[in-house]
Amino acid sequence: MKLKSLRLKISAAIMVTCILISLSIAAAMYPFELERRQARLRNIHLLLHAVFDQKKDELANEIYADQKEALEISLEEIQRLENIETLFVYDHEGKMKASALSENFTIPDAIKSIDNIDTSSNFTRFSKKQYNQKNYAEFFSSIEVIGINVGYIRILYDLKTFQQESRMIFLFFAVLCLALLCIIILLNFFLTRSVILPASKLRNAMSALQEGDFGTQVTISSQDEIGQMAVAFNEMSQRLHRQHADLTSAIATKDAYALELKKSNRKLEQLNLNLENMVQERTIELSKSNKKLQEEIEERQMAYRKKEELEQRLARSKKMEALGLLAGGVAHDLNNVLSGVVSYPDLLLLDLEESDPMYKPVLTIKDSGIKAAAIVQDLLTLARRGVVIDELLNLNRVLKEYIMSPEHNKIQMYHNNIVIETNFQNDLLNIKGSPLHLKKSIMNLVSNAAEAQPDGGTIRISTYNRYVDMPIRGYEHVDEGDYVVLEVRDFGVGISEKDQERIFEPFYTKKTMGRSGTGLGMAVVWGTMQDHNGYINIKSKMNQGTTFELFFRQQGRYCPRRLKFRCSQVIWEITKL
């Protein structure tokens, strides 16, 4: 069966090779044949067009003068040209006026008249047609005299020679295929005698050797690779015969050793079983110890990381507290001084006309006092840390109130090329917080985002609920739990890693002091988040933008003010269940 398979494979390989050669020749000849046919049709078209151009004026005059006999003579002159078989001339209404027919040509009904031609148009058409079961190249054109369409001419060119050329090429390809078929038969015959039959003998000898007939020989007279394989097989068969004889004699002496070996194997199996049990028990003990040790190491590493984070937060808190106390003391003194600077200019402006030379300087003093008062207010906000945070509120409501506030309108008026986009989650959970401090922090974040985009841009404010299942190691370490997240994102210049380390320090700013920043806004944000027991995370890339994420602990579902007590009671009861 395998030999038949080998013969089939060899025959198939030869056949596939010949088929591929035939297809390659056909693929190479097809474009040339196609181009030849198209070129032949173009030459026929040019010939018929040239003949028509030569006779066009003569035909037009004869049609116009209604000289039917002269018209038929002109058509017969054209018909004498090789392969031009039949001609028809029609008047301007499409009715046949004269014709020159070949022998045995029957005029089909389709060309006796012209029905679907626009008689007002000047056109020429060349196409292949079949009439009376013969193929023609049809040249159809209008005939004009001084721009007037007087009739039409139809010339039928016999494509018999054209088709004979195509048949000759097809016959050549058929002869080529027949030659390839003969090559396949000859190759198959040669391979059968020189390869397959010797391989069959070699296989039969191998089968006999496989069945135990050691010493069998194969006779192959060829000196090629198969003949060399036969010689090697004969040597191997003789060697196996000798080895089999030696092995038979050795088997006779093995029984005594086999019994002793069997006893030894039983003892080894028992020892192996005991050893496996001991190793398994020890492995279980080591796995438990290793797991316990790994848990202790992870707990210590986590405790060490938490200790480092707490120490960093404590150091930052002490630093901020010291700066806050200093700022608070200075702010109280400045507040007393500024009370006169802010109030007295209003009294002076009441007595001054706008045309008075002192009006603008006094107005400048008033504006400067108001700006200084705002700075003092930031200092007081920074100093009043430790505020009691016990009001249950919804961050969406705080954001909406801030967006409607004068402070936000002032930022939008100053940065009129900034677009504010909001994306608030509808079912946002409640938090505990101070609306005043939260609005102040939101204002500072929005102001910084606007100033980070001096050429205009977009600020995106978003809120959403988020469950942190793995601690976030960002700017601050965010523990696992349920949070309400406030996200303020801009697409401005970004914040470098060096500046991120000091961004929340009071009076630290990259802006021009007194003109676009005081360095207190981000310190107020940091202090507010500390009072709310929240976390801050910063994501920033230079020239791509910055995102501030504020994490607040969730306190339950959002409830309207008139239903707050009832909703809180229901949530508390569900939690208790």
Note down, in words, how this protein is organized.
By secondary structure, the chain is α+β, with helices and mostly antiparallel strands. The chain has four domains: 2-102 and 115-158, 2-Layer Sandwich (Beta-Lactamase); 169-249, no CATH class; 293-385, Helix Hairpins (Orthogonal Bundle); 386-576, 2-Layer Sandwich (Heat Shock Protein 90). It is built from twelve helices and 14 strands. The chain has helices at residues 2-64, 68-79, 160-210, 225-251, 255-351, 359-383, 395-403, 406-414, 435-451, 497-500, 521-531, 564-576; strands at residues 84-91, 96-100, 124-131, 134-145, 148-158, 392-393, 418-424, 431-432, 457-468, 472-473, 477-478, 481-490, 535-541, 545-553. The strands form four sheets. It has a five-stranded antiparallel β-sheet. A hairpin with a 4-residue loop joins strand 1 and strand 2 (96-100). Helix 1 runs antiparallel to helix 2 and helix 1 (2-64) runs antiparallel to helix 3. The two termini are 79 Å apart.
